[in-house]
Amino acid sequence: MDSQQQNKSKPGARSNVRRAALLLACASLAATPTPAQTSPVPGTRQPVDPQAAWLTYSPVDTAHVFPAGTPVPDTILRLGDSALENTAANELHRGFEGMLHRILRSDTRTNLPERACNLIVVGTASEIAQWRPSLKENKLAPEGFHLRRITSGKDTLLIVEGADERGSLYGSFALLRMIAEEQPLTRLDDTEAPSAPVRWTNEWDNPNGSIERGYGGRSIFFESGSVRDDLTRASQYARLLASVGINGCTINNVNADPNLLRVALDNLLGNAWKFTGKKEHPRIEFGSTKAAGKTVYFVRDNGAGLSMEHAPNLFGPFQRLHRDSEFEGTGIGLAIVQRVIHKHGGQISAEAEVGRGATFYFTLG
Q1: Which of 26, 258, 264, 284 could be a cystine partner for 272, CB 3.0 to 4.6 Å?
Q2: Any alpha helices (H) in the chain, and if so which ranges?
Q3: By C-alpha distance, which of 96, 110, 85 is closest to 59?
Q4: DSSP of 175-197, one letter per residue?
């Protein structure tokens, strides 16, 4: 069964309605690496990209971060090969080059050459424990990390240990923030973990590319009713959010009672599921469109459908438009849906054809 989902919401607060974030769209915040920027030349200042915020990695005083006698890492040892750990290593490369004018080598070998090594080690807790069992520590909270500097034999290690892959990424950004603030890393030993599993920003972007309440320009996600072809700025935004530990983005919202809307959608989607049950290739869609300047949501299926001659009775209680032998039901589902939609100041209507399915349209506020 296919499903589609498009997004939009419109603020329209009502005193008796609790504001809830309806996740009709969500930006992925896996911090996809963006193309590398031009490396700064030691002693010069590069043009600042205001959209990059602190991720411009402007030069700092190396002596403040690594005081005299403190070895400066020359190699990144990445223990895992996930997308997030690759991103973490890439950010460390960019940060050290931009802020400290150091071009780090990359290594993924767990058997290091017989020489003194000044390493940044990036990995999850399980990967680090497997690499060197003596470094195993107490369990970290999900998405948490532990930053530490230790001497192990001939090696001086800056360890970025994540509870998981996301923790490795957040830990790498945390290390880079310390460098950007010129904090000395001689006695580095810092453990952090998020206090909430979901940490999101709240957007008000419309599918037509506008932003509710006139916030800063056009949407970086949508244009002309569709997702933008070029999501470069969205990727840069995701990178910035990930750098401060934010792992979600609600692109648009609707002011509604989530429990009541769940009842309405359960009924509409449940009906679509039921009436497509005898189709060889069933199809159900949930999406939105624009009409007279308002967002109109819809649930569409290619199921049994019905005759529009019955439209006046469609939302009445205990109105059964199919025989019990064909499809079971109570006849009150659509009446409940209409009551919920009206409670939110919206309207609901239907289009249908026997044997070709039905579409239910509704607005909110």
Answers
A1: 284
A2: 62-65, 83-100, 125-131, 165-180, 232-243, 258-275, 333-343
A3: 96
A4: HHHHHHTT---TT-EEEE--SSS
Q: How buried is 338 (Cβ within 10 angstroms: 0-12 exposed, 13-18 middle, 19+ buried)?
A: buried
Choose among 307, 318, 314, 319: nearest CA to 361: 314
CA R_g for the chain: 27
Domains of the chain in sequence order: 25-251 (3.30.379.10), 255-362 (3.30.565.10)
pLDDT value at 121 more than 50: yes
Beta carbons within 8 Å of 99's beta carbon, 6+ residues apart: 57, 58, 59, 60, 176, 179, 180
Residue 283 pairs in a beta bridge with 2
Distant-in-sequence, close-in-space partners of 165: CB < 8 Å, separation ≥ 6: 80, 82, 84, 85, 124
pLDDT in tens, 127-175: 999 988 888 877 899 999 999 999 877 788 999 999 999 999 999 999 9
Secondary structure class of 120 (helix, strand, coil) = strand
Measured from the Cβ of residue 213, the count of other Cβ atoms closer than 10 Å reads: 6
Considering only CA atoms, which of 333, 277, 323 is closest in space to residue 303? 277
Q: What is the pTM of this model?
A: 0.62
* Residues linked to residue 298 through DSSP beta bridges, in sequence order: 287, 361
Coil, strand or helix: which one is 33? coil
What pLDDT, in 10s, does the model give residues 15-74?
333 333 333 333 333 334 443 333 444 444 455 677 788 899 999 999 999 998 889 999
Q: Hey, which of 9-18, 205-214, 226-235, 321-330 has the most confident mean pLDDT?
A: 226-235
